[in-house]
Every structure is written in structure tokens, then in C-alpha cells.
Predict the structure.
Amino acid sequence: MTDAQVGLALATPIIVGFAIALRKMGVLQGYSSLAAVLFSVAIAAVLFFQQ
């Protein structure tokens, strides 16, 4: 794995964790947190396999 792939593998779960935490605190609505999780995973997957 390259450094970029390691960074993506570490950053994506952190983003997902923040989205879930913000949802539990009431800052994000359910749809917004779901969109944040889906888009961050999709972007990370595309960038991971392009490296």
C-alpha cells in the first residue's frame, strides 16, 4: 500500500465516526449523516483504487 492509500484507509473511518457523532448530538439530520458517510466511502474507494 502506498502512503496515499494508508491515509485514505485511516481518514475515511474518522470521517464516518464524526458523521455518526454529529448525528447523535443532533447537529446533522439522518439524511445528511447518511449522505456524508456514503459520499466519503465512495470517494475514498475511487481514490484508493486509482492509486
Q: What stands out?
A: DSSP finds two helices and no strands in the chain. The mean pLDDT is 91.
